[in-house]
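S2.1 Query sequence (DUF2093 domain-containing protein)
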Amino acid sequence: MSSADRPAKLAYGPNGFRVLSGGPFVLCAVTGEKIALEELRYWSAELQEPYASAEIATKRLTGKA
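Output structure tokens follow.
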């Protein structure tokens, strides 16, 4: 499996993220949807999870997902 087929592993911080291992995308923690790294805007530094949209992030963080 090439790195183009694997999700990246990231460390999420309050103001950004750091790539731990390369890949072109991450998987949304709620939906499993692929999120290209250049499109990643929503994550939880506390839970270390990425989210595909603000709506999904809000539902997850308020316990409604």
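The chain is about 10% helix and 30% strand. The radius of gyration is 11 Å.
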